[in-house]
Design brief:
Order of helices and strands of chain A: HHHHHHHHHHH
Pfam family, one (chain B): OpuAC
Structural class of chain A: mainly alpha
Radius of gyration of chain B: 20 Å
InterPro entries (chain B): ABC_Gly_betaine_transp_sub-bd
Largest sheet of chain B: 5 strands, mixed
Number of domains of chain B: 2
CATH topology of the largest domain in chain B: D-Maltodextrin-Binding Protein, domain 2
Chains: A mainly alpha (214), B alpha/beta (310), C mainly alpha (224)
Largest interface: A-C, 46 and 39 residues
Radius of gyration of chain A: 20 Å
Number of strands of chain B: 10
Oligomer: heterotrimer
Protein name (chain B): ABC transporter substrate-binding protein
Helix content of chain B: 40-55%
Structural class of chain B: alpha/beta
Shape of chain A: elongated
CATH topology of chain A: MetI-like fold
Distance between the termini of chain B: 22 Å
Number of strands of chain A: 0
Strand content of chain B: 5-15%
CATH class of chain A: Mainly Alpha
Strand content of chain A: under 5%
Order of helices and strands of chain B: HEHEHEHHEEHHEHEHEHEEHHH
Helix content of chain A: over 70%
Organism (chain B): Streptomyces spongiae
Shape of chain B: globular
Keywords (chain B): Signal
Number of domains of chain A: 1
């Protein structure tokens, strides 16, 4: 199995386009996943009976093969990017929801009581005290969800999307390893870079955790 | 594709769901959505969808080349899947044009169709196609389905025609793309017309690495391949003859949404159809599959060489 | 839309319950057996690789950084790409399926085993050593039992992912429940796709429950 370097040289534009499209799908899914799981996590955190239900439901969604989800979405959103993004979003939920709930749980009761004693309203407490303190755990979830989404985008190649995944079906049909290797390496690179950027973002967003560590 | 900044792309992509949810018309199990929700005329550009095998992509890029030369903006979406997936997408407006094959398309929209002559099939298609879709004049090039066995298998069981398969009912394994199992020009027709019953149907791919690999290894006895596949000759495989004409003529024919089928598009695609021969198409497939050239480059070079584009 | 969903699920009912659907080489019984075979064998191989690795790293504390980063690297590996790559290298065989599934399962097993080992209170280990226990005795009699809950979590997570992903075997011509998903896609038979997906989810949930039952049993055994 040899790499045809000239093919890679001739296709840098295509590889860039596919990488950008790949990343777009994955990041949009994580973004939407966060938008959905934040309010759900608050509900699950506050209302105990709903907690098991929501977490259990997201766990069950996780057991459905991703390819089936993409295909079952065809009657809803057709052969479009939307199908890819909805499918990926569903998979981010299991990680994001669980970590956000755990993050909120990790905020010490005393801190919340102190905020209440100071007359801070519940919504304000949530936004200015609980969520920031939960941020490290939430960010850990965001990192896992991002890496997972980036690796999962390629499954959408079976419905004609899939970013770098298109290189896999192409290489498969033509018995041509070079595009497949390029696709795998670029997917790993995207995941590494995205993860590093998220670590940096977390560093900037949570200055207080640094002092404690020092 | 224009390059956007990452953030801009993220926001744009995030706004897609709302828009696309309105534009997609495929809302039932069979994909019987309403037709014609895609935008305007060929002036707004044409999205060409292609199926999951090399030749269809070559054809898609050939369409793109001649349409671009005629001043129509095109987007090619390679490798979208099977006819069963593509035609609902065409009805729904996700794509506007796709390279099709006369007989196979006719049997998809009218499984009991009896027409076998090209002109008849073209008329039958015009009647049978759902409102909003039409076929343009068919081209010279043809790519038929072939049921193929290895030389050894042919000799062992005395197979020369599809009718011979019925003598070995319950013994042979057939390998083909999954959709062939439920198609008239496939397992269904082989049973109805020739009375053939296989021991097993193995879902593989469309004249791709799986079905050819399985035939070589002996995992399947009969394989469904395309007549434009150069591997048939290269491996000295035997194409079973079709005395009862189960397999209809398969001239390449553009299937297009009415809203995009204006004079410019008709003229450009007709010119291509009159130039491209079966031999040419076979050679272009070979360049993509064996020489690992891009279907787009192969198509562009051919169109230029034939004077279809400048 | 509501009509479509209703239709889909009523058709699913008859698909799942028809006798014809359960028999023969493409029957649910056979596909289920294939799917279980792929999933369980792959998870076993992954456990044989991941458990010793996680225990070793956790016990010695060496190589943790490399192992944990390799594991998160492994999580980013695109399964489809890996399957195709191994297919191109090995031809028509089961290798692509098992390599991809094992690669998927090993990271979850290693990281959780390691996490379980590091969560063991150092004082407990010191006390065990103080009582004159040898290194391997500390590992197998103290650390391993205490790390077991997290180790089991890793195994369960790996198994769920493997069961869902074993669907990919159908892409390279093999069987399993993924056959229904891929064939249903090619034929645009959504009932078949849904049937395959539901069966995969049921298998994953049942196996997970079985493992958590095993976990409870192991604990009762230990404390009794």
């Amino acid at each position: 199995m040899t790499i045809d370097w000239s093919w890679i040289g001739d296709h840098t534009d295509d590889l860039t386009t596919l990488s950008v499209s790949h990343l777009q799908a994955a990041l949009t899914a994580v973004f939407l996943g966060l938008l959905i799981s934040l309010p759900l996590a608050v509900v699950a955190h506050r209302i105990r009976p709903l907690r098991g239900l929501l977490l259990g439901l997201s766990n069950v969604l996780f057991t459905i093969p991703s390819i089936a989800v993409f295909v079952l979405l065809l009657p809803v959103s057709g052969l479009t990017r939307t199908t890819t993004v909805i499918g990926l979003t569903i998979y981010t939920l299991v990680v994001l929801l669980r970590n956000t709930v755990e993050g909120l749980d990790s905020v010490p009761q005393k801190t919340k009581e102190a905020a209440k004693a100071m007359g801070t309203r519940p919504l304000r407490t949530l936004l200015t005290v609980e969520l920031p303190l939960a941020l490290p755990v939430i960010m850990a979830g965001v990192r896992i969800a991002t890496v997972m989404s980036i690796s999962l985008v390629s499954v959408a190649t079976y419905i004609g999307d899939g970013g770098l995944g298109q290189l896999f079906t192409d290489g498969f049909q033509r018995n041509f390893p070079t595009p497949v290797i390029a696709g795998v390496v670029l997917t790993l690179l995207l995941a590494l870079v995205a993860d590093a950027l998220l670590v940096a973002l977390q560093y900037v967003l949570t200055p207080w955790t640094r002092k404690r560590g020092a | 594709m224009n390059r956007r900044t990452l953030l801009g792309g993220l926001l744009a992509a995030a706004s897609v769901p709302a828009l696309a949810a309105c534009s997609s018309g495929i809302t039932s199990l069979e994909g019987e959505g309403s037709v014609g929700q895609g935008s305007g005329s060929s002036k707004d550009g044409i999205t060409i969808g292609t199926a999951n095998f090399t030749e269809n992509q070559v054809l898609g890029y050939l369409y793109a080349a001649v349409l671009e030369a005629a001043g129509v903006k095109t987007t090619v979406r390679p490798n979208l899947g099977t006819r069963e997936i593509l035609i609902p997408a065409l009805k729904g407006g996700d794509i506007d044009l796709l390279p099709e094959y006369q007989g196979a398309l006719l049997h998809y929209v009218a499984p009991k169709a009896t027409a076998t002559e090209e002109g008849e099939m073209q008329n039958a298609l015009t009647i049978a196609l759902p409102a909003g879709l039409q076929v343009l004049p068919y081209g010279m090039a043809e790519d038929s389905d072939a049921f193929v066995v290895t030389r050894e298998t042919a000799e062992k069981y005395g197979l020369t025609s599809l009718a011979d398969l019925a003598k070995q009912n319950g013994k042979l394994v057939i390998g083909a793309a999954a959709e062939v199992k439920t198609r008239e020009v496939g397992a269904v027709g082989l049973k109805d017309v020739y009375g053939v019953e296989f021991k097993e149907f193995k879902s593989l791919d469309s004249s791709g690495p799986l079905v050819k690999g399985a035939l070589k290894k002996g995992d399947v006895d009969v394989a469904n391949l395309f007549t434009t596949d150069t591997d048939i000759q290269a491996n000295d495989w035997v194409v079973l003859t079709d005395p009862k004409n189960l397999i209809p003529g398969q001239h390449v024919v553009p299937l297009i949404a009415d809203r995009k089928a204006d004079a410019t598009v008709r003229k450009a695609l007709a010119e291509l159809g009159n130039v491209l021969t079966t031999k040419d198409l076979t050679e272009l497939n070979r360049q993509v599959d064996k020489d690992k050239k891009d279907p787009e480059d192969v198509a562009d070079a051919y169109a230029k060489q034939k004077g279809l584009t400048k | 839309m509501p009509d479509t969903v209703y239709e889909l699920f009523t058709n699913l009912g008859s698909w799942l319950t028809s006798a014809e659907q359960w028999s023969g080489p493409d029957g649910i019984g056979h596909r289920l057996a294939e799917h279980l075979q792929y999933s369980l064998l792959a998870t076993l191989i992954a456990a044989a690789i991941g458990l010793p690795l996680g225990l070793l790293i956790g016990h010695t504390g060496r190589g943790a950084f490399v192992a944990i980063n390799l594991a998160s690297f492994g999580r980013a590996l695109p399964t489809v790409g890996l399957v195709v790559l191994v297919f191109l290298a090995s031809g028509l065989s089961m290798w692509p399926v098992y390599v991809a599934l094992v690669a998927l399962a090993v990271p979850a097993i290693v990281t959780n085993t390691y996490a379980g080992m590091t969560a063991v209170d150092p004082d407990v280990k010191d006390a065990a050593r103080g009582q004159g226990m040898r290194a391997h005795q500390v590992l197998f009699q103290v650390e391993l039992p205490l790390a077991l809950p997290l180790i089991m979590t890793g195994l369960r997570l790996a198994l769920i992912q493997v069961v869902a992903t074993a669907t990919i075997a159908a892409y390279v011509s093999f069987g399993g429940l993924g056959r229904y998903v891929f064939d249903g896609l090619a034929q645009r038979d959504l009932v078949q796709v849904l049937g395959g997906a539901v069966l995969v989810a049921v298998v994953a949930v049942v196996l997970d429950l079985a493992l958590s039952g095993l976990q409870r049993f192991l604990f009762r055994h230990r404390t009794a």
